[in-house]
Design a protein that fits this description.
Largest sheet: none
Number of helices: 4
Shape: globular
Strand content: under 5%
Helix content: 40-55%
Distance between the termini: 13 Å
Order of helices and strands: HHHH
């Protein structure tokens, strides 16, 4: 399954982590401890890798470690 829109990614993240889609934006940060995502780096890494698997794109550990925002994930899985 290829991703065609940021909306699809946001909907998936919303379901995966239990946060309303209205709270997730392209610039939502995985690294901000006061942000919407867990401050647990391992949990975030797991979610990022699972996103890739869901959208048919393997995200390596090295790629996942560079992700700072939802937009970064989108850029990886849309290529």
């Amino acid at each position: 399954m290829a991703i065609s829109e940021m909306k699809e990614l946001i909907e998936y993240l919303s379901e995966k982590i239990g946060i309303p889609t209205t709270k997730i934006a392209a610039n939502s940060s995985f690294n901000d401890p006061s942000g919407i995502f867990s401050s647990d780096d391992w949990n975030n890494l797991e979610v990022i890798i699972e996103v890739g698997e869901n959208f048919g794109r393997t995200i390596t550990d090295e790629e996942a470690e560079t992700v700072e925002t939802v937009s970064d994930i989108y850029d990886i899985i849309s290529n």
